[in-house]
């Protein structure tokens, strides 16, 4: 976990990690997530809600995922070894 005040360079560290992984042909093993859409765009990642398929189309907060959705998430994450979460404090 990387902490720090806004504007101190946490997203730049994320970019550097992604560049390192890309250089070593391991970017496919890394997923970048953020709590807000603005932060997700800044790190070329997904929101945590999007990754969990909890987007705007989910009307009920207690909606459970279907087996198809669970299988899809499992398949997507099967080869992910590293997960970076930006803006974790939000």
TrEMBL record:
It comes from the Eukaryota. This is DNA helicase.
């Amino acid at each position: 976990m990387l902490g720090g005040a806004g504007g101190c360079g946490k997203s730049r560290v994320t970019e550097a990690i992604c560049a390192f992984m890309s250089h070593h042909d391991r970017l496919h093993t890394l997923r970048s997530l953020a709590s807000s859409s603005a932060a997700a765009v800044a790190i070329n990642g997904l929101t945590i809600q999007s990754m969990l398929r909890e987007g705007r189309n989910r009307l009920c907060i207690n909606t459970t995922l279907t087996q198809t959705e669970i299988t899809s998430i499992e398949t997507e994450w099967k080869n992910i070894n590293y997960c970076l979460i930006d803006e974790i404090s939000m």
